């Protein structure tokens, strides 16, 4: 394993018109599934922790788990903290061995978002840790199609110039989790943001998009795509299908295979195969 930062793993993505998969995982079955898929496809990989995983995995435990498992693989791996809503979580991640973090205060006014993001960059840059931030707000489940949540392309350029972040998560009509409405995917907004900056752009709330929508986003400048719900749904679908007659160990192995298969599909879709 080559342990890398977010900046390193996303280098060349814009020019190469591909995106690196970001996989949120919280146990060994999921971790082995995504790593095995990335190794098989020779794809770089971002493995990430979210605060919502704390009932089964603590923030401080995650980097050690990834390091111990990923040693057997030969691909570049970034260990990322996803959606830290407070700087205190960034501080904990800095001490725990993450190579990349995301501060998400996108619900705040622009100036406050900029100020807090600059503080996160100040904490992480001296340690060689990459920083992602979000501008425009990606909601949960309920897709907002009224325009209020979309990232403003002009603000995106200002935000990047003033904060110095390494990657920017943007809102173009997607939503976290399972969609409760059909998203109005604004590819025109993505194109305008991509034209305003050469920084890597990130798509959150991707689970539930069609393959065609994913492809269109990557071809227009998305360099990193966050996936969790599709992995979790693949796992629970396999468990429901195969639960009868299997013991817990066998079920964990089925989860690993289901996550592997879904990860392989996403790697091929994002075009990151043979980029490791």
Structural description of this entry:
- With 276 residues, this protein is an alpha/beta fold.
- It has a single domain, classed as Aldolase class I (TIM Barrel), CATH 3.20.20.70.
- Helix content is 45%, strand content 18%.
- It contains eleven helices and eleven strands.
- Strand 2, helix 3 and strand 3 form a beta-alpha-beta unit.
- Helix 5 packs parallel to helix 6 and helix 7 packs parallel to helix 8.
- The radius of gyration is 18 Å and the shape is globular.
- About 2% of the residues have low confidence.
- One of its GO terms (molecular function) is zinc ion binding.
Q: Biggest sheet: strands side by side, in what order?
A: 2-3-4-5-6-8-10-11
Number of strands: 11
CATH topology: TIM Barrel
What is the CATH top level name?
Alpha Beta
Overall pLDDT score: 92
GO molecular function, one term: tagatose-bisphosphate aldolase activity
Binding site for Zn(2+) 1: 83, 176, 204
Cofactor: Zn(2+)
Pfam family, one: F_bP_aldolase
